[in-house]
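Objective 1b of the project was to move from sequence-level analysis to a structural picture of ligand recognition. The entry below was assembled by the postdoctoral researcher (A.K.) and checked by the PI before modelling. It contains the amino acid sequence of the target and the SMILES of the bound compound, nicotinamide-adenine-dinucleotide.
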Amino acid sequence: MPYNLLKGKKGIIFGALDDKSLAWKIALRCYEEGAQVVLTNAPVALRMGEINKLAEQCGNAPVIGADVTNMDDLQNLFTRSMEHFGGTIDFILHSVGMGINVRKNIPYTNLNYDFNHKTFDISSMSLHRILQTAYKLDALSEWGSVIALTYIAAQRVFPDYSEMADAKALLESISRSFGYHYGIKRKVRVNTVSQSPTRTTAGSGVKGFDGFISYAEKMSPLGNATQDDCANYCVTMFSDLTRFVTMQNLFHDGGFSFTGVTPAVIEQMKE
Ligand SMILES: NC(=O)c1ccc[n+]([C@@H]2O[C@H](COP(=O)([O-])OP(=O)(O)OC[C@H]3O[C@@H](n4cnc5c(N)ncnc54)[C@H](O)[C@@H]3O)[C@@H](O)[C@H]2O)c1
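Corresponding predicted holo structure:
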């Protein structure tokens, strides 16, 4: 149900690949809540063409290609978005991740550092690149809100998450550090949302994902949070109702992060 929480707000959504993507649901929900959006993804992802369907559903939103590791692409994205909106940007969703060693099944104890460097650049430094581009162009409105999606492997070891755990730890740190500077400059808030495991293209790339998703379901008093619930939460974080929340890692995981054990898991151990 729409509450008009984002009426008049303008945002850039990074990372909608297909209709399973977290960013896809978040873009739709932002639009439903009255926001105008610009959609962006890597040029190679745009060639799939799926994103054009989302653009139509978001009131013919512009789609502007940008590789998050390329500063010229980001500069172009922000400049064109501000032209399109006729002013500054109120919110940004960073929903981007790629573990190259993970994709290539290279174990954590044998990382290829060229791939690892690329993983960090795409999954973590990209948030710094985006914020730095916006900061220099003074592209974000006062009280603007930036969210990056993350995962609890930044705090606790999930062995198969491999280098992405380190990437998420760096991402969360950048959100705190830049959150400080952007708070001082423009009262812009920067947070990470730590989402339950969710069936998406990136999610399914993690080894043993199906078993893991049912383990998390059993370990969360509320069960795993879905894409739609993640979208609802992000809307509140982009809205004016959460203006003093910044530099936080916010768990959106049905209680998984603070649960030690549950009867459902103990029961399974007995079998
Ligand atoms: N699915 C999960 O279980 C889960 C849980 C917690 C957090 N997350 C995080 O949510 C975010 C979105 O992932 P998702 O699960 O929706 O999967 P997804 O595969 O749909 O989204 C990942 C996106 O990153 C984009 N991307 C990759 N390289 C890029 C580049 N160089 N430039 C620009 N974009 C690039 C891809 O094109 C894709 O759209 C990621 O940060 C992921 O780590 C996912």
